[in-house]
Automatic annotation (TrEMBL):
CDD domains: ABC_NrtD_SsuB_transporters. Residues 4-229 form the ABC transporter domain. It comes from the Bacteria. Belongs to the ABC transporter superfamily. This is ABC transporter ATP-binding protein. One of its GO terms (molecular function) is ATP hydrolysis activity. Keywords: ATP-binding, Nucleotide-binding, Transport.
Length: 229
């Protein structure tokens, strides 16, 4: 598990008439191994842009994103991603959807099956192994997406507004779940949310961003509960 350094990272998009638009300006913060960091800020402040850079989907930026001192590129960071919409494949069962994340990993069939079973249990979906996505509630589908994100045992789990589409009660339940999973798995988590309360409740560190242009305007450390036992 590695330390992630985001150092003076800026990103401009080309817009009409050879003009550029600064979506992210000088973002600087670190993500300690095993910690839980949230990025909060209003719509348009550059959260998704920053996440795409961290994921390695876009390497056209200024500054440095370093994992253990090495510049991140393409696939160097082992990561799982959970989106606002579960993105499960509708023609595959829960077990198959989660198993798909292991297809390029050189584990034995038994190892893969065992890991899939363990991760279904981890998110509380025992008994739903052979269910199709349409048979799951919204909360259950997001649990499945979390299991899929973790099944390959990534260094970092990125959560992009994972609870944004859920009703208030399901959202509260899944906040509890995410915190429990973070504790038992010891995985580094980066959460993007526009819900400040959610960020403060779940994180060790909250990176507050603002628009015009996209800047980090505050960094709040929440040390009460960290390091974990
Ligand atoms: P957030 O995720 O915080 O809502 P984004 O990272 O999606 O913010 O967007 C930041 C800013 O960059 C917004 O003003 C958005 O309109 C702009 N933007 C995002 N992607 C592009 C793009 N491909 N081309 C031009 N502008 C973009
Ligand atoms: P949560 O956010 O806790 O997953 P849900 O509303 O998704 O909340 O579901 C609560 C519980 O109700 C689930 O854990 C599951 O046991 C049960 N449940 C929900 N939808 C279904 C369903 N379609 N079939 C069977 N059980 C369900």
């Amino acid at each position: 598990s590695g330390r992630l350094e985001i150092s003076s990272v800026s990103k401009s998009y080309e817009v009409a008439d050879n003009k550029t638009f600064d979506a992210l300006v000088g973002a600087t913060f670190s993500v300690e191994p095993g910690s839980f960091v949230s990025l909060v800020g209003p719509s348009g402040c550059g959260k998704s842009t920053l996440l795409r850079l961290i994921i390695g989907l876009d390497d056209d930026y200024r500054g440095d994103i370093l994992l253990n001192g090495q510049r991140i590129s393409g696939t160097s960071l082992s990561r799982g991603i959970v989106f606002q919409d579960h993105r499960l494949l509708p023609w595959l069962t829960l077990k198959q959807n989660i198993g798909l994340a292991l297809q390029n990993i050189g584990w034995s069939r038994e190892e893969k099956e065992k890991t899939v079973r363990e991760h279904i249990a981890l998110v509380g979906l025992n008994g739903f192994e052979d269910a199709y996505p349409y048979q799951l509630s919204g909360g259950m589908a997001q649990r499945a997406a979390i299991a899929r994100g973790l099944v390959s045992r990534p260094e970092i789990l990125l959560l992009d507004e994972p609870l944004g589409a859920l009703d208030a009660l399901t959202r509260l339940r899944l906040q509890e779940e995410i915190q429990r999973i973070w504790r038992v798995e010891g995985v580094t988590m980066i959460l993007v949310t526009h819900d400040v309360e959610e960020a403060i409740y779940l994180s060790n560190k909250v990176i507050v961003m603002n628009t015009n242009p996209g800047r980090v305007v505050d960094e709040i450390r929440i040390d009460l509960d960290f390091p974990r036992d």
